[in-house]
Amino acid sequence: AYFLEGEADMNKLLGTVVRFAITAGEPVTQGALVAPGDRGFLAAALSPGMRAVTVPVNDLSGVAGFVFPGDRVDMMLTQSVEGDGGELKATETILRNLRVLATDQATSQDVVEGRVQVRKSTTVTLEVTPRIAEKVAVARNLGTLELSLRSLAENQNDLERALASGAIKVPDDATPEEEERILRRAASRPMDGRTSFVTGGDVSRFQT
């Protein structure tokens, strides 16, 4: 049941997820690891307290297949709202910094001859908080959902703004390891508080 040094193929362990915390020097058993495609892999890959939700996508809403597991995306909602002045068309960024867990049933990228293979997907599974999972369920029934791919440097910019505003606080007596852990956790957290929007009137003068 144990992986023995010198006998086990360590390359086969790359990409696996541990079911529970493993301390330094502790023997690793086969039951402690879950490989992609195994039962329970997605549940083990989720961060503590997080949930997985799936949204439908197409070539347009899924960034033409250039969204891969591990990427970070924002979610936009496009809807039409009836009012006294007529129908208002609007698109709103409702969620930010969502981690992509899987595209369709794939939890990893296909690499052929050193190049990542772009493939069309019909669904994308995202890691969210329980509260955001409820928002996504409602948003699916309000209008059309689209994903926008985030830059790799975007999280660092958001993190610096949060530190400057005091939204994220690091204790003065925190060790470098504790500070890194706090910042890493904050940078990976989905955001649902700050939204932005564009209406038809912002795009065309002929839209009310």
Structure description:
By secondary structure, the chain is α+β, with helices and mostly antiparallel strands. Helix content is about 20%, strand content about 30%. The strands form three sheets. Strands 3, 4, 5, 8, 9 and 10 form a six-stranded antiparallel β-sheet that branches. A two-stranded antiparallel ribbon has the order 1-2. It has a two-stranded antiparallel ribbon with strand order 6-7. A hairpin with a 2-residue loop joins strand 4 (about 70-85) and strand 5. The longest helix is centred in the middle third of the chain and has 13 residues, at about 130-140. The chain is globular and about 75 Å long. The protein starts with 16 loop residues before the first strand and ends in a 5-residue tail after the last helix. The mean pLDDT is about 80.
Helix/strand/pairing class, anyone? alpha+beta
β-strand number: 10
- The pLDDT mean sits at 82
Morphology: globular
| First-last Cα distance | 68 Å
Radius of gyration: 21 Å
SSE string: EEHEEEEEEHEHHEH
Which sheet architecture does the biggest sheet show? Answer: 6 strands, antiparallel
Q: Which quaternary structure do these chains form? A: single chain
User: Which strand-content bin applies to the residues?
Assistant: 25-35%
Stretches with pLDDT under 50, minimum 5 residues = none
Describe how the helices and strands are arranged.
Elements: E1 17-18, E2 33-34, H1 41-45, E3 51-56, E4 72-83, E5 86-103, E6 111-112, E7 115-116, E8 123-128, H2 130-142, E9 144-149, H3 154-165, H4 176-187, E10 196-199, H5 200-203
Antiparallel strand pairs: 1-2, 3-8, 4-5, 4-9, 5-8, 5-10, 6-7
